[in-house]
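Revision sheet: structure tokens.
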Amino acid sequence: MAFEGLSSKLQNIFKKLGKHGKLSEKEVKEGMREVRLALLEADVNYTVVKSFVNKVTERAVGSEVLESLTPAQQVIKIVNEELTGLMGGTAAKLDYGSRKPSVFLLAGLQGAGKTTMAGKLAVWLKKHQSKDALLVGCDIYRPAAIQQLKVVGEKAGVPVFERGQSDPVETAKLAVEYAERNFLDVVIVDTAGRLHIDEGMMDEIAAIKQAVDPSEILLVVDAMTGQDAVNVAKSFHEKLGLTGVILTKLDGDTRGGAALSVREVTGKPIKFSGIGEKLTELEVFHPERMASRILGMGDMLSLIEKAEQAFDEKKALELSQKIRKNEFTLDDFLDQFQQVKSMGSLEELMGMIPGMNASALQGAQIDQKAVGRVEAIIKSMTPLERRKPELLNASRKRRIARGSGTTVQDVNRLLNQFEQSRQMMKRLTGGKFKPGKKGRKGFFGF
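Predicted:
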């Protein structure tokens, strides 16, 4: 989980400050020294750390904090505001420009995830902006790069324009013309990368930029490269004039220093963050929400948005009516289970809940086998058995256990969980919710 180490350290620092009834200037400065060390250990750029700590210290030693009845809370408030500002203040929107189709140029080093990101961006544009995109293969150097883009395009359901090993500048120009003729909204150009920045690569991307006049030049940066991400961003910005940054693999880096450094160094906003390998796992980067999560204050807005995306409103209404009529079936149970799964990992969701310490989740494991068992057992039942679980006698349970590769005890456990859930939701929809007995397992037994 991104910023896990930093989040844990900052929360411990503020916990220590909170033990003091009043804060002296000396105590504030000692706390800020610890904050500086925590940021450096999170791989945040040194210059960025120095500037950030100076700003926070300057505000925190003022009368607003030192004379406050809750000085530690005031310090946290200041750190939250400065962290938000450091990452851009507010979420940045895409610029589609005045021409159609809009052209988005993706740049970055090899291995940063540009090709996959092109597909993710196309999926996001379709889902959230109702815009049809065209992917353009301009990486003619990396083996199988064009083929990879075609596979990504097929999975995303997005057309791909490519001309094999032909001149990438000409390919980009022809792709824009193709998009115009076919009334497509956005052209996403996947450019070539190298293992390191070199003059040839930069000149080629600059030539593509000149040829297609993109409204967005987005640098795709691997968040796990840490300090190197800053140097890469500076070089690309000087040559191309970036309009924004996309961070990939943010879910795989517990330090997250790149996210706190890139915006300050380039002056350009982080527009998106990749949070997983699936083509749907792309999020708008919200600085204020990220700052809140880093400080252990949660991110309820993102959690609500995930729930809204995962749960179909029409299905929810139908489910409510079924529960009221006592018609909630195992098919409905499985459907709800799959929708919860689609919201993301337990660790990610828990990290969005206010007051949840990231370190408290360390070592917490989700039993994926248990998850698979639930689905396997229900899918091994006949449609009639799913609608009327009371039909499940001993011989039927043995058959289901054999068919799902589980035991009769697993089948019985699932049926008990289903019945508990049915009763609980019946109380909820009737407005008479009563807490279950202490020690009872949750909705899906986890």
